[in-house]
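Now for a specimen:

…
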Amino acid sequence: MYRLAKLDVTAIQRSDSPPTRQPETETMNITYTTDGSVRGTCGHKHRTVEAAYKCLEEDQQGCESQGGYSDRHVEQTDGDDLTDSA
């Protein structure tokens, strides 16, 4: 037969501080995309900012090869612009 140890819960019950909540950035997966007012979005959800910049560079090279330019910039999925271009 097993014997259960008695748990002292007085420290848990008498806590003066409210339970802490993890910041939402720790629980959500941040992704990145490229977007421009003329070119639109790339349609990808990049897991790293480096992958988003690579996608941006490929779009810029593709536009340049046809005599144009890309207005896209890198954004987090929450819409925060990560480049200096607007």
